[in-house]
Structure formats: C-alpha cells, structure tokens
Amino acid sequence: MRRAVLAVSLCVLSAAAQTPEPGKSVKPFIRVDAAKIVLTHVRVIDGTGAPAVDDRNVVIEGGKISAIQPGADVPAAAGTAVLDLRGYSVMPGIVGMHNHLFYIARPNLNSRRQFDDPVLVPQMTFSAPRLYLAGGVTTMRTTGSVETYADLNLKHDIDAGKLPGPHLDVTGPYLEGATSLFIQMAHLTGPDDAKQLVDYWADRGVTSFKAYMNITRAELKAAIDAAHARGIKVTGHLCSVTYKEAAELGIDDLEHGFFVNTQLDPGKKPDICSESMGTTTLDHMAPDSPEAKDLIATLVKHGVAITSTLPVFESMAGSGRPAIRQKALDAMTPQAREDFFYARNRPAPPANAPDRALLFKRNMQLERAFVAAGGLLIAGPDPTGGGDVVPGFGDQRGIELLVEAGFSPVEAIKIATLNGAIYMGKDKTIGSIAAGKNADLVVIRGDPGTQIADVENVEIVFKDGVGYDSQKLLDSVKGRYGAY
Ligand SMILES: [Zn+2]
Predict the structure, then answer these.
(1) pLDDT (tens digit, 9 = 90+) per residue, 234-277?
(2) Ligand 1 centroid to 88 CA: how many Å?
(3) How far from 436 is each of 420, 440, 444, CA to CA, in Å?
(4) How far is the CA of 134 from the centre of ligand 1 (A)?
(5) In whole angstroms, what is the distance from residue 36 CA to residue 390 CA?
(6) Model-level pTM greater than 0.70?
C-alpha cells in the first residue's frame, strides 16, 4: 500500500467535472487524485448485500466508477493512478442517516435528566465533518439541527471544495412541541407554525425534517404535508405521537429502531409524551407478539423506514462490551473525555427498571423482524448519549452491532450504505459499487465481508473519485471533538 501510494503522490488535476478544485483546507487531506484511478486486485463488497468478490479492478474516471473488471496488473501511465490493493476491500461510502453535527456532553448525576440545565448542544462544525469522512461516511443526514445556518453554510463550503466533509442532507431545526429538554429548539405553537417553519427552512436549502418528542399530531401532520408538498421527507424521534399514529399521518421514517414507540406505555395520553418514553412498550413487544406483528405490518404498509441507532444504546447492553476505541478518545477534548468516563461510571438504574440488556436485544430482534417483513432499515450512530458515540467511529460500530443483531456482514453494510441511498432517492447515483455510479468508496484493510471488525480499518475514503487520507483527517481533529 505504502509503495502504491508513493507512486501516486504526484497529484494530477481531477477530471471530475462536477467536483470543484479542492481548496487549501481540503488539499492536505487528499491522498489520491488523478484523471484516472485504478484500484487493482481489490475485494469488492458492492453494498447490495451480494457476497464479496475477490480480486477485482475498480476503475474511476471523472468522479465516477467507470468499470469493474477482473483483477489485473495495470501499467503506470501519465494521468493514471494505480493502487495495488491486494489484502484490501472496498465498500460503498457509508450513507449515515442519524449523523449529528453537534455534541452532547456534560452529564450530571444530580439532575433527573442526567444533564446540567439548561441542556445545550455545542456545534461541531469543524471536527464532526472530518471525523465522518475519516470513518468512511460520504453522505449523511444531519437528522435535526440546532445551528441550521451553520449546517447549510457547511454544506455549501463542502460542495464548493472549501472544507472537507461528506455530502450533507441538512435537516431543519427540530419540529418540537410546546416544551423541550433542549433550550435550543423551537417550540411550535400549532399546525400553522409547523407549516411556516418547514416552508421557511425549505426555502433556505434544508432537505429533510425531523419531528421531536413533544410535537402534537396536528403539528406533525401540518409539517408532513408542507414538507411533502415540496418533495421533502420527514423523520421523527417521537414520544407524544406513537409509531402507528405517525405512520398513519404519513411520516417517512422513525428514529431509534423500536426504542421510542409509546403505544403501550402506561398512562399514555394523546399528544403527550409518556413518562416511560417507550421503554414499557418495547418491554411488552416480543417480536412474535400480535402487537409487534401489527405494528410492523402497519409500518411496511405505509412505507415507513426505520433508522437503527444501536451505538447510542450500546451502553445499556451490559458488561463485556468493547472499550471505546483509543482513536475516538484521541479525537475528544480532555473535558469531553472526562465527561465520558464520568457518565460511563455512574451507577446503574434501580433494579426494578426493565432489564436494559434485554431491551437492547429486543430492539435488535424487532429490527430484524422489520427487515424480514420487507421494511427499509437504515442506520446512523446518533453521536450524542454519554459521549461514547463519536462521528465516524460510531458509524462503523453501528455496522458491527447490526451483525450482532443477526444480519450477515454484507447485509449490515447494505443497511448502512445502499438502504440510506434508497431512502434519500439517490440510489441511482450512490450507495453501491457499480459502473456509472459516483466513486464514493471506502478502502479498508482486511475483509469486513467475513470479519466485520475490519470495517474499522479505513485507509482511504473516496468521495466523487477523490481519495482522502483517513488518518490525516483524524490527526487534524485530535483533542478538538467536544469543543468545536
Ligand atoms: Zn439524534
């Protein structure tokens, strides 16, 4: 690899017509950029769920995959970069579907909410995009924004080649009801307000919306109708509205697997978030129960996707879990690291609470049943929680946890790549490895098709045919994640 990369260290002008010339903040991270790039003798995991194919040549021209051929040696030529990738795999760039550009830290044991008041989420406009790209994410939905102008400007600057990062689907400000845990959220005053919020932000370039825990059914309906009128999709991390109610209102996607459905929560009142926030419902929804079957059938009938966010729940899954990766800790500020260890070591919930490890497993079973019934499962890490879910690293961990849930490695990779592209209506151009598609590819040492942990060994991330050096991106954010 090292030799191969040395051979292409001479950068040739990118021939990708739609890719602008990289600016001074992007150039230092580029490892491969040439009019023609040939990845030789590489194992291809194409993102469709098909088995991996060994020893292929993947040809990249004009920012796109121009051919996939049997493995062969290719002579070096002017304007052509040739990489010998024996022992490596390529998979599609990750399409991250719950990938925030902010961070929640500062857990506080003394507060019922486990956070200091007021709950603030600092914006990670500098570090998060670099971490995502370093981890193999080439397209992502922000899934709720707190500094929406910053996110829109970031998208603009990434697309203009001024800043490194994935392609962004910028989600508008959270569509939240009259109250909220988070002080940065808007508080909708009714259906008209919901429609106005959607129209205002859609006019300014927002391409998705997310409803939140205290929205009313009427507000959600108004937001969905306004968004759909403009061809924009709406997802939700719900509580006040149940999954079935939201499906019937026309929502497109539901966040957090089956963790936050409240239909069986005791004392659940219409339009009011329940105390249990979905825990009781999950506890009472065995995958073969009539309630689960009915719910899944309703979601599939209405074409509602489910976003799996297993990493943000992993800390509830009990002991024996792998430690947070050192590289992820290295990315964090000293304060973020301290807060993370503080949160991790706080006492377990009282013994009469539902068995959290069982709930984690139950949710995995429901996600599998949803896919078996024909549902579209997409994935994102939700880098919030106790600080242990870090952009990029969390996306990789999500794929590993989907394998733990019982999906095969190539199925898990499909959920994290092609399925997201299908949801976004972009599967003609991204999400899998095929001739004619955008060259959004992750070069990985090893074989995640058989050993999923290899998905962590990202070396080069191609976005629109330009290869970024994962380690250089990580080095550039060391000690900064958590601050900005
Ligand atoms: Zn989230």
Answers:
(1) 999 999 999 999 999 999 999 999 999 999 999 999 999 999 99
(2) 33
(3) 19, 11, 22
(4) 21
(5) 34
(6) yes
